[in-house]
Amino acid sequence: MSGKFQSFLNELTKKECSSERNQVYNSIIRLLKTSSTTLKQSKLLAQQLTLDFGRETAESSNILLSVIHALFDSDVTDRTEHTDLQTEILRNFSVFLKNSKSSQAKLLNELSNHNFPPTVVAPFVEDIVAAVGSISDVTIADQVITTVARFLSTNQDAMLTCINIWLTKLLSYTSHQASSTRVSAVSVIDEHIDIIVKRRDVIMHSCAGTLTKICFPALKPLYSNDEALKEILSSQVLVIMKIIGVQFKRSSTLLNATLEPVAKGFRHSKDEIKVLSFKAWDQLIEALGEDKEIMSSPKYINLLTQPIKFKAKNEVVLESMIRTSWKLVVKLEEKMVDLFELVCAPLIELCLGDISSRDKTSRRSSLRFSQLRQNLLSHSSTQLLSADVIGHMIMDVTTTTYSPRLTPLHSPYIGNPAVFPRFSSTLIPVICDVIKHLHRQLPDDFISQLWSTLVNCVNCYIAKKRDTDMFRSLFNSTNQIVNESVVPPRVAMTLVFNLSSFPTKILNSSLYYAGDRELGNVHGTPVLSVIKLLFTPAILDVIMEDTSLWSRLEELISIGMQRRIAILEFVHDVVKLFQHRHLIFMHLWGHLADHVFEYMTKSGNINQGDSFEHDFVALFSLLGFPLTFIFNGGDCGKDVVDDLTTTWEEIFDKFVEMSRLVSSVKRNEVVNKMIEMTIEKLEGNEKSICETETSVQFLTNITMVLVSNTNYTDLPTNIIPERKSPTGGSPKEKQLQPILRLMLKLGNLNSEDMTYMVDITTHVTHVFTEISDKYFNEYFLIFVPILHNLIEGMLR
What we know:
By secondary structure, this protein is mainly alpha-helical. About 65% of the residues lie in helices and about 0% in strands. Strands 1-2 form a two-stranded antiparallel ribbon. Helix 6 (about 85-100) runs parallel beside helix 9 (about 125-135), helix 22 runs antiparallel to helix 24 and helix 26 (about 445-465) runs parallel beside helix 28 (about 490-500). The chain is rod-shaped and about 165 Å long.
């Protein structure tokens, strides 16, 4: 058979007529499936094909391609007797491509569909690719792309030796006139991007030249076409950034050319195209992020933060801006502390509002945020992204039930107590805004952990260095959250209780007081502010339902009583915060009263004033609260009233005793003042008081305390000097002593309308035991109007 094949080859060498040569080739095609060939025959056939491809006509082109097709047919390639023939054809294939004028596309098709073993093809890949790379006919770009893709899948190692050739060819096709061709070229590059990136040093020079001289100049006219621009942003720009990576540092020209369509997209009126530009910017961040030192340099930080400064008008674009900006934060995580003002602060502003001013007098740069962009944060997706941003910076969000939508940082650097103080003036109001405006979308444990992390950071810092501004900012933020009732009461309560973790010396320091002084106390303290916040109606409702929380309020009161100064002022302010009608306040009053009695005993101090003008307002308010509570219908059991009476008597007895040592205090002044308070609180409440046995018993007991502490050495009346009045009349000349007026008032309560009667028999007996014989008659006459009631009470 090889002899017959040889005869046909001999004819080819002799015949010059195209038609005759075609007939010979047809005969050879028929023999290929059955005959074998020698190396010499294989070389001769390849030689003749090379010659004919150089002088091909339309007619000869078809027969030559038929020969190639037959040689590439699996029935031929699978036969080992044609190994030499396959080798020679592949060896000369590059010449076929170069010599052919009209059959390059079909030759490439045959090459793309070859069935040769990869080991047979490998030695000739470089020459073939070189020939493919030299093809200038852009109309067969698709065939070139397919051929390159086939070789990359079957002979990747061999392709790496000529990576510059095929890569620059594919890059040139990314700016082809046909969109499908551009997309195909990009697809092949992207599919093999890993091996390309590994050889970046080898390809950089040739790629940069191709991109700046061929690719981008050809693409530029397409930027004005919306569909083409979307394609360029979503494919060409992305793959080019992947190829070049951090090597953009070597060519500003290439970087500018790459970013030109991206900038065009940012300025475009269509949101869809703006979003694609942000995705392209994501890839730029990835590219430059390969070298953190390069990326964090002033030149590139200024570049990379530009998109954060754009104004977004809808949810989709804003979300893209936030995600892109966060990607930059993640890439610069290790550098975040130093780049906070440049990277993090603009992102926070983007999420939560405009920067209205900077506090130039602060030791740290300070950002003051205006009202939230309600039109933007009304979208749930951007709301949660904003929470992600703040949460990831401050804490480990994954430890909560919240499902983050942004990539967590390896470590919440800004939430580190050693770092946080540098940015506290920005972050404290920001965290407050997150809680105030996003709490409905966030789980309670997320809010609680965010706040506790914040409190811990402030706590750690001021333990080392006094910073009243930071502390007051934290307290002001707490006030906003609680007073605006923006979070559920139980969450608000948790936030406030977190503040009690500060050291006692801080909680008791007036320097750290963040209140508005509305209590009228210049000695206000943080612990007082905490107590006041916990008495907010909504929070108080939660505390009243859970008696286990009462002890935490007691602890705060105990902290306040550990002050070295202004103890009585603290007592007065706390009592003013007490409300009525619920047992918790009597419980807290008892705890406070125990502290006060201990303080009076140890310090001997009851006077808020000075030696010239005394002031007992704290003790009067303390002693007056139980009267108000019970006289207004506060519910107390017998045991509570018994304990209350004992405590009240101890404090009042001590109060009277110590008041006698104050030179400016007149005789009976303290007792009279207390009696006047009692009478005032009784007015209008007499019937309701007499409806419960416990309230009558309490009133009876404290009246006895007042009776026992009154000095009866004077007349039973207070003498008021006579004076003229503008109307010509004269004022009263006499008024009963307060204790007598109180006793008469109580003695007159006995009637059928009263369930219980206040028994003052013992009180009256005490008075007549104490008075001198000189005034006996006058006192007796005073009690005559109530003798009937007194006798009736004794007979009951």
